[in-house]
Amino acid sequence: MQESLVVIVRALITFFIILLYARIIGKQQIGNFTMFDYINGITIGSIAGTLATDLSSKALVHFLALTVFIILTIVLQLIGIKNRFLSKVQDSEPVVLMQAGKILEKNLQKVRITKDQLMAQLRAKNIFSPLEVEVALLEPDGAISVLPSSSYQVVQKKDLNIPPQAAKLTTEVVIDGKVINQNLTQRNKDQDWLTEQLNNQEITNLREVSYAAILPNDTLYVDKFDDQVGDEMNISDYPGPY
After folding, report:
1. Domain co-membership, 7 together with 82
2. In principle, which of 12, 59, 201, 211 could form an S-S bond with 223, CB 3.0–4.6 Å?
3. 213 and 173 Cβ atoms separated by less than 8 Å
């Protein structure tokens, strides 16, 4: 019982110490989570955990170690602001992964990223062809930044002097054959409009509809349970049975 009470007290003290140190370090530790920040955070967390639960040693020893790590973190942050070289050593620098639509294999190997991982990151940014990429950079925090090729950059309405309109989201109105009347009302549509749109696509029964949504341009997108898509695209090169 006495040991449990000691652990509770030390855990509470550790919690508020970490909270205080987190406020001192500032938002940079979370906002730009580089590999150095990640390892440093794990180390500080490990020391804090030991401070809270290790009853075989004095709490002061772990408290001093925790304080040293926090002070070093703050000092390196301050020096890194003034010294660009130390900042590069601490956080590394961006690495070019693609240029002019071409993959730079040596740089991929340098940062240990596979082509599949690179393509997945591009798709997450709505880029489905390497030809659309002018430059792709791996940032120090692990994120990939992409500059689209000028041939594929989206033209803004302001570039064509077109008056802007209020943006709309895609609104789901049918899921698994069931109408979402609330969403229809939000888009100023009714059941008659929905029926007419479905009839225009030769759909007479809601049970045929797997998913339907009103697009931002007020047209209806419909996906049926028995869609005929022809030969299904296979993007896998794995020859196995599953």
Report:
1. yes
2. 211
3. yes
For 83-113, b where at least 16 C-beta lie within 10 A, e where not — what string?
A: eeeebeebbbeebebbeebebeeebbeeeeb
Task: Report the interhelical angle of 59-82 vs 2-25 (nearest 10°).
Answer: 10
**Cβ 133 vs Cβ 115: under 8 Å:** no
Full residue range of the structural domain in which residue 30 is found? 1-89
d(CA 176, CA 222): 11
pTM: 0.52
CATH of the domain at 220: 3.30.240.20
Q: Is residue 161 part of a domain?
A: no
Q: Using one digit for the tens of pLDDT, what is the confidence trace for 88-102? A: 666 677 888 888 888
Asked if the structure places residue 237 within a domain, the reply is no
Same domain, 45 and 107: no
pLDDT tens track for 39-90: 777 787 788 888 777 777 777 787 888 888 778 877 877 777 777 666 666 6
**Residue 210 token pair:** 């797997």
CA-CA distance, 116 to 208, in Å (whole number)? 36
Read off φ and ψ for residue 103, nearest 5 degrees. Answer: -85, 130
Q: Which DSSP letter does residue 130 get?
A: G
The count of other CB atoms within 10 Å of the CB of residue 4 is 8
Same domain (yes/no): 180, 214: yes
Burial class of residue 208 in the structure, from the number of CB atoms within 10 Å of its CB (0-12 exposed, 13-18 middle, 19+ buried):
middle
Question: Is residue 204 domain-resident?
Answer: yes
